[in-house]
Structures are given as C-alpha cells and as structure tokens.
Amino acid sequence: MAKDTSIEVGSFIAIGEPPLPDHIEEREVSFSTEDGATVKGILCQPKNIPVTQKALFLYEIEGHTNGGSVTVISRRYADLGIASLRIDFSGHGKRKDEWERYSPQSMLHDATVSLNWLDEEFPEIDKTMLCGFSTGGGIAILLREMDDRISKSCLLYPVLSFKNNFIAAAYDDEDLLFPLELWDGATPWRAHEFTKEKLEASLKKDKPFSLSAHTYGANFIKGCKEVSEAGDITRALLNSGEVKSPTPLTVIQGTHDICVPHPLARIYYSWGKAVKAPFRLVSMKYMDHFVAPQWKKSVLHQFRKAALQSPEEFKPNHTVVSLRPQKKGFLDLETQLRLAKDLDHVRLNV
Question: What number is the average pLDDT over the span 52-62?
C-alpha cells in the first residue's frame, strides 16, 4: 500500500516536528454564537507549569485548526506557559456545513465570542494575545481596534487591505494604491484566484466564491467590499478606534510573498510610523507565503519575542532578516517541493 505523502504548503513549518509531547494538553472545545452558529476549536495548554498568558489563533482563508503554523506555534507557546485557542471559522474544518456564513464579519464575530470564552476559561488573566495568519491576520487587526481586551498581536504575512489585495480587481486603478497590473505581477496567486469575473459574479449575481480547497457564499466577497468601503483594514491598523491605547503589533512579512504584497506592508509601516502607531515590521528577505524549513527558526523567534516582550520593551521599528548565506533565503515553491520528497498534493493556505 502506497504511503500517503500529501502535504499542504502551509505545513512546511511542521516538517520534523515531534508528536504532541506529554507535558502539553490539547482538547477540542465548542461554544455557541448569538446567531446560532457553533464555534469549534482546539485549546492547547501546558500541564506542568502555570498558565501566565492566553492567546487566540486566527488562521488563513484555506486553513484549519491542525494547520502547520498554528499547531507548531501554539505548542511552542504552551512551553512558555501560554494557553492558546485556535478556532475553525465557518466553512472550515468541522464547520464545513457553514460555508455560506463565511465572511469577514462572521470571522470577526467568532473571534469576539472566542475572547469571551477565553475570559471565562482563564478569568485570572485579563487580556488575550492575538496570533493571526494571512486572512486571519487581517481579522486580528480589526478585532484589535475594537476590543480593549487585546494585550499584543503577532501576525504572519497578514492581509492588510481587502481593497488593495483580495478584491483589487473590483476597483478602477485610480481607487487603488497602485494599478492592478502591478498588483497582479506582485501577487500572482491573488491575481489568479480573485479575478474581476469571479468578484463581479459574487457582488452582482450572488454567486458562490470558490478557491482551491473551499467554496464560500457570495457574502464573503460582499463582506470584503463592505469592510473596504468602511475604511478597510488599513484604518484599523493605523487608528486606535474604540481602544484608548493601541497595543503592540508585530507583522512578519516575506519580501517575495506571492499572495500578500510586501510593498503594501512597507507603505503601511511608514504611515504607522508617521502617526506613532505601535507597529513593528519584520521583513523576511526572500521568504514567500509559507514557512520553509530554512525560515522556521527565524519565524518562531519572532513569535517568541512578541509573546514575551513587555510593552515597555517593544520598539516599533523595521527589522530586515536575512539567512546566511543570503542566497539560500529564497526557495521558490517548485524548489521547496523537490526538497520535500514524494509529495503528491499541494494546497496553498492563505
């Protein structure tokens, strides 16, 4: 019988990871939302040391609670005394039947309800850290603006704008930071999946929106447009909103990301610096929209740093990380797949 050697691109970070160790506990949890949905997730916490922090993990558009980055980082956090909850969004994991409910609004609602659950589970810990990945990173920024229970945030290649990324093809060039042709060249995955035809079918004809691993209702695209028209994720990134004092935010972004454009992160970081936002940008030179084994140590270091740093230690600077030797920093997807032997299937998590 042939061995199943399939892998998701988002699981490269899990290559070489051991099974769940005895000193860490993971258990499935579920709780209801006001609109009748049921959030399902996995709570990860240490067994033998006190829990000193709590964190909420929000994954990418094609992700799941056992995805590579969220699982690896949540278990590393457990070693630091951090209990973390990683949740399935509607249409994902054990919530596949809710695919029509999926939207930025439903994600934000589920994240808020998850904060409530963490508060009940760990009442002695006042605030929650946010860990967001790609699309989940964008939701984390929206949540950070509106909820004062956030202690800090660490985001891996987050979507920083729906207008200038996912639904760029729904706008004229003069409405975008740069012409669509430039964005298409910088983010070929987005250009292929979020075409003008697909976007208009959802916006004007209520057609479902399909990606490689999931199909969502039209409300996903309509919800992105609604957020965009209300000021986009950018406004939440640079404005404190309902929160009196915005908390430290670390953004980890690869310079060769084919899904989320690094130039956008650079622009928003410069704007954040101008308004003295607590925004730290970590540019991984040549890294793409996945954590190859060569980048694992660096990415984990940044998540550890974000978790353990006090607000007083946080410095809103721009750090560029290069591998040594530099030429090994960039490994395109084809090269990475050749290095990981006998792979039958690859799915890109965004």
Answer: 94
